[in-house]
């Protein structure tokens, strides 16, 4: 609820990494690992901002942030085929009005 993210290993109750206030205090609505690139994950906050984290590039803060204007995004899901190396990765965004948008992610965050 405060924008903190914790990375855990399944064998320990203590986080390996913790990022406090990663969304400037906005609650996190959804977080999902990239299906095609293991070190990348996406975070959606309550203000319809999407943060892209690439732990191989920067493990202190997101490498990109994108605001989705005009509509309240209520959830997201990633689309892709991990067994294919074509670098296609999409984000499905469900908006409060019932509309669903699909956006493709830049190849640098999608290629294995």
UniProtKB/TrEMBL annotation:
Listed GO MF terms? dynein heavy chain binding; dynein light chain binding
* Annotated GO biological process: intraciliary transport
Per the record, its GO cellular-component terms are: cilium; cytoplasmic dynein complex
Name the InterPro entries for this protein.
DYNC2I1 (IPR042505), WD40_repeat_dom_sf (IPR036322)
Protein name, per record: WDR60 protein
Which lineage ranks, top first, belong to the organism behind this chain?
Answer: Eukaryota, Metazoa, Chordata, Craniata, Vertebrata
